[in-house]
Amino acid sequence: MLPWSHLLSTWLIRIHPEFSEGLTHTMPRSLKTIFLGAAMTSVLLLATTPVANAAPFPELRMADNYAHAWCFGETLPKDQQDVIFYASDRIDAIPIMDTYGQTCRSGTDVYFYDKDLDGLRGGYICTTVGPNGRCAYGAIYIDFAYLDSDPPASRVWHNRRKTAVHEFGHSIGFDHHSPGYHDCPMLQGRVPDDHYKWRYFPVHDADHVNAAY
Ligand SMILES: [Zn+2]
Ligand SMILES: [Zn+2]
Fold it and tell me: Which residue ranges make up each domain of the chain?
């Protein structure tokens, strides 16, 4: 765990007390999920060691269901909102996933924040684990200032979007995928070029998610 991670978890509990309580709510498409535990589990996916992804899906906790609602956890400028809408569309492009923004409420799966991450591009935390060990609620942090200052300036647009898609990818069960395996948004670090492959999930990845529900 990095030094700020504990503080982050504490902060989340403080401003989003619903994350640590047992909840009953109705999900879109009438998928009802009952959370009995009050267990608070934080998984911070900021490790720097690339993994070979021969592991079966999910490589990390998958989302509790394919209805994947997200919200802006704070007021973000339009250029940052656009990045998150872009990433949402990339997750929604996975056939089984139904991904959409909404006003933050009980039942929202992912909260988005802009945050200084001390040199990290982004981070994802599953704040509450639901039934079957899947993630019920989580939060995504993107360090826009860091991404905007990472050269070359001509690639800021691409790095912002790749990072948002990448963190979203963690929230549906992907760990890091090395370029030696295939090229996709789960690459760590800055994008090597402006190719769309760093912002779109390939059929291989999409098929894993489709088969998981
Ligand atoms: Zn990552
Ligand atoms: Zn991949």
Answer: 62-212
